Amino acid sequence: MNKRKEIRKKRRADFLRSLCFLMPSLTGVGVFFILPFGVVVYYSMIDGVASRNFVFLENFKKLFQNSAFRMASMNTLKFSALAVPLAVVLAMVLALMLECRIPMKSHFRTFFLSPMMVPVASVVLIWQVLFNYNGTVNEFLMLFGAKRIDWLQSEYSMIVVMLLFLWKNLGYNMILFMAGLANIPKELLEVANVEGASPLYKFFNIKLRYLSPTVLFVTILSLINSFKVFREVYLLTGDYPYESLYMLQHFMNNTFRSLDYQKLSAAAVVMALVMVVLIALLFWIEDAFGKDVEG
């Protein structure tokens, strides 16, 4: 009995000691993340900051009836659906290329890593010079007899922002994939070479399976960054860009300026729920795909 009591006392002491070490971090997360999000959820279910009458889902119904919110949601969904897979696949291809012996490998790596060292405002300035109505791209196209295109005020505007997003994020994603490739057991690849396995077999059955955690992390990171593309679009086009570039962040920023806290809070809760569902789905896919590797 005494031995059991001592073990319990030791476990309790270890738990309290661990809790003391975790307390600063837990306090910070609670004060700066959990508590503010709780306030946002509360605001999304009342009719006003002054009256504070509980209306439950009424604000969400009004939100989904709002045409600006629907347009912003569709644009954000389209952008993420196109940009995130491209950011993951292209970064993996670049990492695989750099794993091979290609000429000017260091220059190639520097080109894709340079956007990480350049401020967003400077990158946007370069894009404005390139894709302005009187910009470099139009001047180049005119050499071949093409007409000028107003890139940022046309259906091509999303392509312009997508190119900016990819150029800004490919370098970091590429480094993550290179680290993942370096952790693949060399013995497996050597055995596959001895057995005469094809490059496609080695990629899909060895490399891709061991890269599944990296793919998950890069996808989540790219997804979050695609939802934060507002900075670049805002610097390029201002508060009210071309319709195809009107993102959820524009809607929330403009709603905040009009002091419509209920609509803003409802939009923030919906956005958070969508992110949680998408990330949970990605974790489930990764767990199903890479389970045998981890085992």
Task: List the SSEs and their pairings.
Layout: H1 2-43, H2 58-65, H3 67-99, H4 105-113, H5 120-131, H6 136-142, H7 157-182, H8 186-194, H9 199-210, H10 212-227, H11 230-237, H12 248-257, H13 261-294
Helix pairs in contact: 1-13, 2-13, 3-7, 3-10, 3-12, 4-7, 5-11, 7-10, 10-13, 12-13
Structure notes:
Helix 1 (2-43) packs across helix 13 (261-294) and helix 3 crosses helix 7. The protein has a single domain (66-294), classed as MetI-like (MetI-like fold), CATH 1.10.3720. The mean pLDDT is 84. The two termini are 39 Å apart. It is flat, with a radius of gyration of 25 Å. The chain contains 13 helices and no strands. It has 295 residues and is mostly helical.
User: What is the general shape?
Assistant: flat
- CATH topology heading: MetI-like fold
Approximately how much helix is present in the residues? over 70%
Name of the CATH class? Mainly Alpha
Summarize the main sheet: none
Number of helices: 13
Strand content: under 5%
CATH superfamily: MetI-like
How many domain regions?
1
Structural class: mainly alpha
- Poorly predicted residue ranges: none
Question: How many E-type strands?
Answer: 0
Radius of gyration: 25 Å
Terminal-residue CA separation: 39 Å
In short:
The chain is mainly alpha-helical.
List keywords for this structure.
77% helix; 0% strand; MetI-like fold; single chain; mainly alpha; 13 helices; 295 residues
